[in-house]
Amino acid sequence: MTDTTNTSRKVAFLVATEGIEQVELTEPWKAVEQAGHTPVLVSTESGEVQAFDHLDKGDTFPVDVTVAEAEVGDYDALVLPGGVANPDALRTDSDVVSFVRTFMESGKPVAAICHAPWTLIEADVVRGRTVTSWPSLQTDLRNAGATWEDSEVVVDDNLITSRNPDDLPAFGKALTDALSR
Description:
Elements: E1 10-15, E2 18-21, H1 22-34, E3 38-43, E4 48-53, E5 56-62, E6 65-66, E7 77-80, H2 85-90, H3 94-106, E8 110-113, H4 117-122, E9 130-131, H5 138-143, E10 147-148, E11 153-156, E12 159-162, H6 168-179
Parallel strand pairs: 1-3, 1-7, 2-4, 3-6, 7-8, 8-12, 9-10
Antiparallel strand pairs: 4-5, 11-12
């Protein structure tokens, strides 16, 4: 394996058009940038996406590329921010499900926080994995074949998961550590 510690990596942040928990997008984005990597906003449609602070509208963010146009080979990692509506919309989009499944199969880092593991469940990529999430997803994850644990961050091979915004420092560190390998 080659040394990539000083190499800038391209990281896809995959979101729906609305319902993204803003801090779960912006904090990992900042961590990626501060580590010298390039974040790219991927969504189901072009234009802008609407983030939220819980149930209140937050900021909008410009989409860089649609998931239908995105190629797994163009990215070194994938981040799935949470929010309830965001992953619920993502898991119904066949392009998203295929992209996530292919990304997991590639062995590249995939990081999902809060409710984002719903998309992983739909892609059928949590079977046999140890994960964490927002607590209300634990039954869904167990039913999909995962082992759920209540930890701020769980790293299982290329899969990084966290529970909620309080876990963002550990989530960001696990993500940037994975990018430095």
